[in-house]
Amino acid sequence: MTNPLISVIIPTHNNAKTIRAAIESICNQTYKNLEIIVVDDGSTDNTKQIAEGLVLKDSRIIYTLLDMSDPFPRINKKGRNINAGYLARNHGLLKAKGELITFQDGDDVSFKNRIEIEFKLLNLYKADHICVDWQQFSEDLENREFDYERFVKETDIKILTPDEIYRQARKAKGIFYKLFPFFGKYIPFEIKTARIVNKLFFGNLSPYPGSANCPLLKKSLTDKIKFRPLPERVWPSFTGRGVDRDFNFEIAETFKQSYTIFVPIYLWRMDIQNDNYKKDISKFIKQSNEI
Questions:
Q1: Do the domain assignments include residue 283?
Q2: What is d(CA 220, CA 109) in angstroms, rounded to the nearest whole number?
Q3: 130 near 255, Cβ under 8 Å?
Q4: How far apart are CA 47 and CA 18, in angstroms?
Q5: Which letter, b or e, does each residue of 17-28 get, where b requires 16 or more Cβ atoms within 10 Å of its Cβ?
Q6: In DSSP terms, which residues pair with 215 in a beta bridge?
Q7: Secondary structure of the chain in the HEC alphabet?
Q8: 223-274, pLDDT tens digit by residue?
Q9: Does any domain span residue 131?
Q10: Angle at Cα 214 formed by Cα 168 and Cα 186, nearest 5°?
């Protein structure tokens, strides 16, 4: 793969305050052969107007409004939004024309060379599916590049191989799904999380290693693997979310060609910094005159 088209799917719901930065961080990527699919999951603010304004400035952007006829409830009895996003991601997959797929959440941003680095790593490890890592978002990191070469030279990068991730997937998978893989969707989630029996459905609650919301993968994998509603998830979070966790673990278990390279090139709007990068890593952020 020399310079394949990469489809970037951006699911969004009421992200008017952040969607411009999210989309522009992809428009400004150093890897240019992109199609940018913004899937609006029923926003009621002015997300649509902002996205359509950006469409006029960059022909690579496609804005699409999701059909809201979702058969599964979004809000559970505890008021948690458990099914948002899976339909939007699948809708983006159906529209994607790229040989490769990645994602960008509508309330986060990426370093300008995030996709270039991911593509380099996918080729380097001859992988079908890779994840990288995140660090805490701050406005001074927008429109900046990450110095990957210096990071490689000066740090001991943690890399998880397909065998290691496969073992994590199996450990996180409840014994019920190992014995009866097709019947879990018929059992209400409230029963799956009940005391005593929950150990049958949850092997452990460890997150998918790396940043599960921005993998780079071959589109061909999605012919078999899609994002799933809560009743069908084998690796949900205990609160009922975990759509990205479920998707990535299923790919890792099914195809056994997944790598995670812990390089922090995705900028997540979190209140705290990633524990992996509590030490000052500002030296790995390229200054404007270095770009």
A1: no
A2: 26
A3: no
A4: 9
A5: ebbbbbbbbbbb
A6: none
A7: CCCCCEEEEEEECCCCCCHHHHHHHHHCCCCCCEEEEEEECCCCCCHHHHHHHHHCCCCCEEEEECCCCCCCCCECCCCCECCCCHHHHHHHHHHCCCCEEEECCCCCEECCCHHHHHHHHHHHCCCCEEEEEEEECCHHHCCCCECHHHHHHHCCCCEECHHHHHHHHHHHECHHHHHCCCCHHHCCHHHHCCCCCHHHHECCCCCCCCCCCCCEEEHHHHHCCCCCCHHHCCCCCCCCCCHHHHHHHHHHHHHCCEEEEEEEEEEECCCCCCHHHCCCCHHHECCHHHC
A8: 999 999 999 999 999 988 899 999 999 999 999 999 999 999 999 999 999 9
A9: yes
A10: 55
What residues make up the domain containing 102? 6-276
Q: What CATH number corresponds to the domain at position 195?
A: 3.90.550.10
- Which residues, other chains included, contact 131 with Cβ-Cβ below 8 Å and sequence gap of 6+? 208, 209, 210, 211, 212, 214, 215, 248, 258, 259, 260, 261
- What's the number of domains the chain is made of? 1
Q: Quick one: tokens of 18? A: 């952040």
Single pTM value for the model: 0.94
Q: In whole angstroms, how far apart are CA 2 and each of 30, 61, 116, 174, 252?
A: 15, 22, 12, 40, 25
pLDDT tens figures, 8-56: 999 999 999 999 999 999 999 999 999 999 999 888 999 999 999 999 9
